[in-house]
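thought: user wants a sequence for this fold. calling inverse folding tool.
action: design(structure=
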C-alpha cells in the first residue's frame, strides 16, 4: 500500500500534443494561409482589371473628345469651346494617373511577361501621344487668345484650315500653330487601335488569371474543409483522451484515499503505526486532524420492503460526500456499507450533536430517493485508540440493526471504552446502545417447535403466529447471532410442518411460497422475518381452508347420494351413512351440519317427505303404501312429519293437488 505513488497533474500530457494532431493543425494552418493569399491575389486582380477597364474607357473618352474639339463645330458665343477644351485637358490628366496606377510592375509580375509588355507598350504609346496632345492644347489656347481660333473653327477645324490655307489667309506662324494640332490628330489616329488592343489584352489576361485563382481557392477550400474535419476529429479524440486520463487520475486518487482510510480501520489488518497512511492521506487532500478527537459513522441502506432496486453503496457514498465538508471523509466498508470519518465538532446552538445532524441529513437525502438508512455512531476517539479494534466493535454494534429494524440509529455507549481509549462521560441520546446478554445465556423453549407444528396442522394459524412472535421477541434481547439462529430454527421447523401438512391434507404449497420461506434467513431485519412468517402462515391457512372446503363439499355430495339410494330402508340413519363412508358418526354429523346447515337425520326426513309428496301427487298408492316405500315404518309417523313440514295431512295434499289439476286454463295446464 505505502509503496504506491500518488498520481500527479496531467499538465505534462497537455504539453505533449500528439504528432498527428500537430501535423493536421500545421496542414490546416498552411491551407488557411494559402487560401488567404489566393483570395488576396484575386482581390488585387479585380482591382487591376478595374483599372485596365477604366484606362480603356478614359482613352476612348479622350479620343472622342479630341474629335469633338478638332473636327466638330463649337459655339464661340457662349464660351462652349473653352469649356470643351478644359474638359479635354482634365480627361487627359485623369488618364495619365490611371495608366500610372496600372503600370505597377510589382502587381503585374505574377501575370507574366505578356501582360507587363502590353502595359509597357500602352504606356509608351501614351508618352508619345501625351506630349503632342499637350502641345495641341496649348496651341489651341494661343489660337483662341489671338483670335485665330475664331477664324479657323467656324465650320470645323480641319475643313476651315485647309480652305483658309488655299486662299492664303494664314500666316506662316499661324500655319505652324495649326500643324501642332494636326500632329496630335495624326498620333491619336496612329495609336488608338494599338492602344485599344493592348489594354483589352491586359483585361483578358487579368480575367483569366482571376478565374484560375478562383478555381484554386475552391480546391484549397475543399481540402481545407477535409483538413479541418480531420483536425476537429483528432482534437475531439485527443481532448477526450485527456479527460479520460484526468478522470482515471482522479479515480486513482480517490481509490488510494479510500484504501488508506480503510487501512487505518481494517479490522482484519495487522496492528502497527499508521503514520505513513496519515501522511499519504494528507498528500491526497484529506485534512482531518488525525491526532485529535474523531468519530466514526457507519451507514447502510436497508433493503426495500417490496420488490425494487436497492440503492448502491456507491450512490450512498455520493450522497454522503454531498453532505460532507472538509472535516469529513468517506470510504466503503464491504459491499453495502459506507464509513464516514468525522472531526469532533462543538454542539450547535440548539445543542444538536454535529455528527448526528450529519447522519440525519444523509438519512433525509436517502429518504427523498425512496430508501431507508440505518447508521451506527462511535464515541469520540483520538490517536491513542486502537482503530482496528474499534472497527470490529462498531461492526458488532451495527449488527444490532437486525433486532432494531429498518432505519435504526445505533449510538455506541461511550461507557464501554475501546482498547486504549479512556471512558467518555455521558452518552448522546437518540439511539440504541450496544447491549444484550451473552450468547450462552439464551435457552430455546423446549416444546416451542412442537406447539407451532401442532397449531399449523390444526389450521390454527393465528395461534402459530403468536407463538412465533413470542419466540422472536424473546430472542431480541440477546446478541444478534442468537436472534438470527432463532429465526433460522423457526424457518426450518416451518418447512417440516408444511411437509407434514401437505402429506396429511393432500395439497402442495406453491413453489413461490417455498422460495419466500427459504429467503427468511437472509432478510434484513427480524421484523422483516416476522412479517414474512405471518404472510406465509396466512397463505397456508387460506390454502388449507380452500382444500378442506372442497373435501367437505365432496363428502356432503357423497352423503346425499347414499341417502337418495337407500331412502326406502327404514333403518337409514346417520350411523348407517357414516359406516358406508368409513367415518365416525360424530365427525360426519359435525362436518355435514357445518357445510349444509342441517343434520344428516334432518336431510333423511327431508328427502323422504319430498319423495312422499311426489307419490301423493302422481300415483293412486295408499298413504300406507307410500309411507312404506319411502322408509317410514307407520302411517302415523308419515302424517305427523308431513303435517309438521307442509301444514296439511297427506290426504289433504292429494285432494288439493288433484283439484288443482282438474281446473281448466293456465292454472290447470301449469302443472
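)
observation: tool returned 671 residues.
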Amino acid at each position: 500500500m505505502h509503496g504506491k505513488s500518488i498520481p500527479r497533474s496531467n499538465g505534462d500530457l497537455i504539453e505533449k500534443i500528439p504528432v498527428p494532431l500537430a501535423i493536421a493543425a500545421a496542414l490546416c494552418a498552411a491551407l488557411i494561409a494559402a487560401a488567404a493569399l489566393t483570395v488576396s491575389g484575386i482581390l488585387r486582380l479585380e482591382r487591376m482589371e478595374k483599372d485596365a477597364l477604366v484606362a480603356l474607357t478614359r482613352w476612348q473618352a479622350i479620343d472622342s473628345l479630341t474629335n469633338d474639339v478638332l473636327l466638330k463645330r463649337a459655339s464661340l458665343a457662349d464660351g462652349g469651346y473653352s469649356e470643351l477644351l478644359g474638359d479635354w485637358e482634365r480627361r487627359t490628366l485623369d488618364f495619365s494617373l490611371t495608366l500610372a496606377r496600372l503600370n505597377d510592375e510589382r502587381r503585374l509580375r505574377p501575370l507574366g511577361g505578356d501582360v507587363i509588355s502590353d502595359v509597357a507598350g500602352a504606356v509608351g504609346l501614351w508618352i508619345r501621344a501625351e506630349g503632342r496632345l499637350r502641345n495641341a492644347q496649348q496651341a489651341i489656347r494661343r489660337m483662341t487668345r489671338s483670335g485665330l481660333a475664331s477664324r479657323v473653327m467656324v465650320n470645323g477645324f480641319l475643313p476651315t484650315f485647309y480652305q483658309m490655307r488655299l486662299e492664303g489667309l494664314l500666316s506662316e506662324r499661324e500655319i505652324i500653330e495649326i500643324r501642332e494640332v494636326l500632329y496630335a490628330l495624326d498620333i491619336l489616329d496612329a495609336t488608338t487601335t494599338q492602344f485599344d488592343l493592348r489594354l483589352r489584352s491586359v483585361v483578358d489576361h487579368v480575367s483569366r488569371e482571376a478565374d484560375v485563382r478562383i478555381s484554386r481557392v475552391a480546391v484549397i477550400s475543399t481540402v481545407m474543409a477535409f483538413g479541418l474535419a480531420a483536425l476537429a476529429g483528432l482534437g475531439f479524440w485527443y481532448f477526450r483522451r485527456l479527460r479520460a486520463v484526468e478522470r482515471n487520475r482522479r479515480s486513482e486518487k480517490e481509490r488510494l484515499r479510500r484504501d488508506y482510510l480503510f487501512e487505518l480501520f481494517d479490522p482484519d489488518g495487522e496492528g502497527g503505526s499508521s503514520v505513513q497512511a496519515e501522511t499519504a492521506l494528507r498528500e491526497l487532500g484529506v485534512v482531518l486532524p488525525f491526532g485529535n478527537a474523531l468519530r466514526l459513522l457507519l451507514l447502510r441502506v436497508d433493503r426495500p420492503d417490496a420488490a425494487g432496486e436497492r440503492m448502491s453503496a456507491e450512490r450512498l457514498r455520493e450522497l454522503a460526500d454531498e453532505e460532507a465538508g472538509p472535516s469529513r471523509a468517506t470510504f466503503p466498508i464491504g459491499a453495502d456499507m459506507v464509513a464516514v470519518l468525522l472531526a469532533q465538532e462543538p454542539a450547535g446552538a440548539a445543542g444538536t450533536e454535529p455528527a448526528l445532524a450529519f447522519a440525519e441529513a444523509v438519512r433525509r437525502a436517502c429518504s427523498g430517493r425512496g430508501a431507508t438508512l440505518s447508521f451506527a455512531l462511535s464515541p469520540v476517539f483520538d490517536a491513542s485508540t486502537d482503530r482496528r479494534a474499534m472497527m470490529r466493535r462498531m461492526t458488532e454494534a451495527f449488527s444490532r440493526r437486525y433486532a432494531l429494524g429498518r432505519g435504526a440509529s445505533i449510538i455506541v455507549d461511550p461507557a464501554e471504552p475501546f482498547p486504549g481509549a479512556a471512558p467518555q462521560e455521558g452518552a448522546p441520546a437518540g439511539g440504541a446502545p450496544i447491549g444484550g446478554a451473552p450468547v450462552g445465556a439464551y435457552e430455546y423453549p423446549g416444546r416451542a417447535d412442537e406447539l407451532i407444528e401442532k397449531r399449523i396442522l390444526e389450521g390454527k394459524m393465528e395461534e402459530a403466529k403468536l407463538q412465533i412472535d413470542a419466540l422472536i421477541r424473546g430472542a431480541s434481547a440477546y446478541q444478534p447471532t442468537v436472534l438470527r439462529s432463532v429465526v433460522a430454527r423457526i424457518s426450518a421447523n416451518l418447512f417440516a410442518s408444511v411437509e407434514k401438512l401437505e402429506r396429511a391434507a393432500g395439497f402442495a404449497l406453491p413453489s413461490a411460497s417455498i422460495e419466500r420461506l427459504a429467503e427468511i434467513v437472509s432478510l434484513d431485519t427480524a421484523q422483516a422475518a416476522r412479517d414474512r412468517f405471518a404472510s406465509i402462515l396466512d397463505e397456508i391457512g387460506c390454502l388449507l381452508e380452500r382444500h378442506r372446503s372442497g373435501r367437505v363439499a365432496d363428502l356432503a355430495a357423497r352423503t346425499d347420494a347414499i341417502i337418495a339410494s337407500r331412502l326406502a330402508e327404514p333403518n337409514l340413519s346417520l350411523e348407517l351413512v357414516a359406516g358406508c363412508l368409513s367415518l365416525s358418526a360424530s365427525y360426519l354429523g359435525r362436518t355435514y351440519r357445518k357445510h349444509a346447515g342441517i343434520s344428516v337425520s334432518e336431510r333423511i326426513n327431508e328427502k323422504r317427505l319430498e319423495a312422499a309428496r311426489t307419490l301423493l301427487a302422481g300415483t293412486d298408492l295408499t298413504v300406507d303404501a307410500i309411507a312404506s316405500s319411502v322408509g317410514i315404518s307407520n302411517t302415523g309417523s308419515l302424517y305427523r312429519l308431513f303435517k309438521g313440514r307442509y301444514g296439511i295431512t297427506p290426504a289433504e295434499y292429494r285432494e288439493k293437488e288433484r283439484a288443482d289439476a282438474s281446473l281448466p286454463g293456465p292454472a290447470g295446464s301449469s302443472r
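thought: summarizing for user.
answer: Here is the designed sequence. The radius of gyration is 61 Å.
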